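User: Hi! I have a protein structure encoded as tokens and I'd like to know what sequence might fold into it. I'm fairly new to this, so please keep things simple.
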């Protein structure tokens, strides 16, 4: 009876302990929600955008304001990607922990080497980010540094879970290194190929693979392809060497389809970020699928886009 009484007493003591609060995370883009899920799978996640949305242009909806107000940390890209909506969201949410310079606001771009920074930017240049290309979630060599910094920050916000978060980061890093080695082997077959793009969304990965950009459907970054610009592209000498016209799921397919009709170059549509399901549920899966689609186009095999 004494042993049973001791067990019952212990169970009552444990049940009386306050429950550990669940880590609440606001992710500006799906890629960072996916990375948080790898490091802190029990976190309560709210994501502001989806793979079918352009992250440059998001409305600061009441539901998002409420999510930021109650969040412990916001994980965003930075490098001015969310400049059109995040400052207003932070102001309206009035969460003192999630403000510039506070631990509760994490910018992935602060922990990566960005391509194409500009000393001078004005509106005549289009949608150019002075810090550099913000679409760093498709940079195989930069993601480990971002993930490590995020693991450290999550552990700072939630000290009791820090050791578990670091353990998951180490496992994630090992898996990422193995995938990166596989991608490097595939890159040997793709080096020297070229594709038509729309915006710089895939530039980190294309550059890493050694795949060149033949032409850009946009006349200037962020400006929709115009009929006159598309007509001018037909005279571009690099166009005939392109293996595919690569666009993201959230982009208007009509310019790419028009160019395809006039050139015979295949249109490949892939998600610009994780989708939350299937092979593109994680960042590693997303990169693998984009590479597969480019491989397919380069080899002339027709599997269609996502």
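Assistant: Happy to help. Inverse folding works backwards from shape to sequence: for each of the 306 positions I chose a residue that suits the local structure. Here it is:
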């Amino acid at each position: 009876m004494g042993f049973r009484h001791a067990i019952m007493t212990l169970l009552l003591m444990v049940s009386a302990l306050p429950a550990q609060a669940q880590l609440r995370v606001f992710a500006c883009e799906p890629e960072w929600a996916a990375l948080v899920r790898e490091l802190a799978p029990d976190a309560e996640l709210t994501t502001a955008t989806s793979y079918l949305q352009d992250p440059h242009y998001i409305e600061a909806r009441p539901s998002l304001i409420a999510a930021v107000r109650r969040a412990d940390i916001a994980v965003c890209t930075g490098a001015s990607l969310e400049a059109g909506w995040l400052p207003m969201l932070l102001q309206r949410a009035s969460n003192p922990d999630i403000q510039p310079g506070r631990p509760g606001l994490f910018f992935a771009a602060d922990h990566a080497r960005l391509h194409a920074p500009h000393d001078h930017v004005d509106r005549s240049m289009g949608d150019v980010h002075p810090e550099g290309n913000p679409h760093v979630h498709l940079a195989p060599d930069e993601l480990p540094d971002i993930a490590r910094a995020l693991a450290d920050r999550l552990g700072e916000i939630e000290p009791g879970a820090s050791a578990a978060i670091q353990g998951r980061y180490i496992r994630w890093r090992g898996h990422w290194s193995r995938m990166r080695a596989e991608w490097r082997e595939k890159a040997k077959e793709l080096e020297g190929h070229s594709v038509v793009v729309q915006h710089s969304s895939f530039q980190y990965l294309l550059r890493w693979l050694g795949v060149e950009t033949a032409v850009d459907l946009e006349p200037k970054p962020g400006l929709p392809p115009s009929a006159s610009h598309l007509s001018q592209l037909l005279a571009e000498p690099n166009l005939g060497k392109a293996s595919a016209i690569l666009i993201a799921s959230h982009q208007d397919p009509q310019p790419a389809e028009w160019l395809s009709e006039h050139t015979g170059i295949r249109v490949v549509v892939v998600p610009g970020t994780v989708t939350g399901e299937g092979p593109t549920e994680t960042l590693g899966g997303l990169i693998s699928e984009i590479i597969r689609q480019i491989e397919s186009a380069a080899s002339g095999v027709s599997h269609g886009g996502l």
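A useful reference point when you look it over: The longest strand covers residues 242-248. Feel free to ask if any position seems puzzling.
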